[in-house]
Every structure is written in structure tokens, then in C-alpha cells.
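[Meeting: bench + compute handoff]

Bench side (C.D.) handed over the final construct sequence. Compute side (W.E.) agreed to return the predicted structure before the next meeting so the bench team could plan truncations. Sequence as handed over:
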Amino acid sequence: MPLDQMQVKGSGSYHEYDYSKTMTTVIHASCVSLDGLGVLLRGPSGAGKSDLALRLIDDGAKLVSDDYCEVSVTNGTLIAAAPQTIAGKMEVRGIGIITMPFTSPAAIGLVVDLMPVKEIQRMPESLSCLLEGVTLPRIQIDALLPSALARVKLAAHRINAFGAIVERSDD
């Protein structure tokens, strides 16, 4: 089934998809869809995954899943979906668990590893990672920096047709 037929955009209900034909792994990450590009936010508890996802959603992204994602590979594409038990739910620190519109699944096009700024290379040697056998563009950011939202959007808009982060001449 094509990905666009599996999505339920903003409905608050869970998609119907038969995962029995694919190997699914649950990972500790949040995911949003930014202009149709799945952005996977990884990091330890307290790194700011939910907070950065909330800022991206406030700026127009769609929630895919908060805190945990089911990932699988379909035709060489990494797909992330919300586990049914948490679909449309998001933890907002200081407020609690809220229900919000979501879209699920999403094709992952960017991995964002969250870490303290002192651990991030100024000029990284590699802008990719291997996840479930799929090579994906990857950036490292400190989710607590005021520019975190802008950095994710900048990287997402610089991904080319081959899945690499490139310099754009149209900027």
C-alpha cells in the first residue's frame, strides 16, 4: 500500500496498516512531519525531544509520535509510526499528557540527534547515519538552544533528492 494511502492526517484516529509483513522495531524517539518530511528526534530522557517537537508543531509541523516510534523499512524507506497506545498523545512537561491531531506513518528523511552543545562538532565530518539498514541525513543539535527550531528547518529544507544535506543556491 502506498504511503499516502496509509496516512490519517490530523484525524486523531490511528491508521490501519498491516505490519505483519514487515519487521517493526520500537525506538525511543519523537517524530514530526515537516512539509511531508519525517523528522526523527532522538536523545536521552530530558534532552528536549517533546519540547522541540512541540515547537516544530507550533510552527506548522504535524505530530507523528511522541517519545516512542515504531520503525520499519518499506522499499528501502524508513517509516515511523505511532504505537497505537500513544497515537495522538504528547507529553508537555508541566502540563501533562495532551491529545492532539497527528499523522502516521511518515517516511523519515532526517534524523536529529539531541545533545548538549559542548558535545556537538562545529564542522561534522559526516552528516548521515545508518538506522535499520537505511542511510539517512543526520544533524546534531542542542534542543534547548533558541535556534534549535531554525536549525531543524534549515537542514530539512536542504535535503536533496538523494537524501543528503547540501548547500542550496536558491537561498
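W.E. noted at the follow-up: The longest helix spans residues 49-58. C.D. will use this when planning the next construct.
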